[in-house]
Write a structure and sequence with these properties.
0% strand; single chain; 14 helices; 295 residues
Length: 295
């Protein structure tokens, strides 16, 4: 029998064997015959363990083809050495939106309820940009975030910082990378609510409230890192004078002539904690005489 006739016959029977269920699904054994390294990773990663031992639905029971789609056309392309079709026949596609659609067939739940329209989704970020699908263990959240948000990595090296460097928290403690109800993908509807989840003593209600504090903690603090104490954006009293520049006391801005060590009379407000020397309860006061946040 001529070799080309034999090849056609073999291709016919192999193609028929691929489409075992009539929909083009061939089973993950056909995948593992070539992708041996992927098999080794798949058997110990989260998807492999779930799809093999306890699939949640008929789609997950398809194994590799749950994400990559029916494999018959892929195998045909391999047999024909049509390299361009090896990837095109998979549902994961080449574009982030196509990949994300496939992931959301299973992962469209409350945690990812704000994904559509989120900053990452609108920027064309794909699930695989952050998640390594066949990796046995997920990458550390900070490593993933800092691969794009390099300015945040730099801020974290400042003297005053959140305890991310010490491993006591991660970016995900405040932000939901899949989108959130608040600004900047925060897990809560406002900046203050996410701050209060740890700093509950600042929540109130308080008899005397400081308006910029109640409006937004980030008016005074930079949560990603600062070179001033307590994550402040500026050193006291200069921070206070971004608002209180011509009211109460003093009526003039501080300058170098009144800094300790300079010429002229030293301003009391420039010593130690500045305005906080007297107005120590700047976050608000419950004392009957605390209108000026002094007690």
């Amino acid at each position: 029998m001529p070799k080309f006739i034999a090849a056609i016959i073999m291709l016919f029977f192999s193609t028929a064997a691929y489409a075992q269920d009539g929909n083009g699904y061939v089973g993950e054994r056909e995948c593992f015959a070539c992708h041996k390294q992927v098999k080794a990773d798949y058997q110990i990663d989260r998807h492999g363990r779930v799809f093999t031992a306890a699939p949640g639905n008929d789609l997950q029971a398809k194994g590799c083809e749950a994400c990559h789609g029916p494999g018959a056309a892929h195998l045909e392309a391999v047999d024909k050495e049509e390299k361009d079709l090896k990837i095109e026949n998979f549902k994961s596609g080449k574009f982030p939106a196509e990949q994300n659609k496939q992931c959301l067939e299973c992962h469209d739940n409350s945690v990812r309820g704000f994904w559509k329209g989120s900053g990452h989704e609108m920027s064309g970020i794909g699930c695989s940009s952050c998640h390594k699908i066949h990796a046995p263990e997920p990458r550390p959240a900070m490593t993933v975030c800092f691969s794009c948000h390099k300015e945040r990595r730099a801020q974290l090296q400042r003297s005053s910082h959140m305890p991310l460097r010490e491993g006591k928290m991660t970016c995900n403690d405040c932000h939901n990378p899949h989108g959130g109800p608040g600004p900047s993908a925060l897990k809560t509807t406002s900046v203050n609510e996410i701050c209060y989840s740890c700093h509950q003593e600042k929540r109130g209600p308080l008899v005397w409230e400081h308006p910029p504090v109640r409006e937004n903690c980030a008016n005074c603090h930079d949560p990603h890192g600062s070179n001033y104490e307590s994550l402040l954006k500026l050193k006291n009293p200069y921070l206070c004078q971004t608002c209180h520049d011509v009211s109460r006391h003093p009526s003039g801005l501080y300058d170098g002539s009144r800094i300790p060590g300079g010429s002229g009379t030293v301003a009391q407000q420039l010593i130690g904690k500045g305005c906080l020397n007297c107005h120590s309860q700047v976050h608000g006061s419950n004392h009957p005489s605390g209108a000026r946040f002094q007690r």
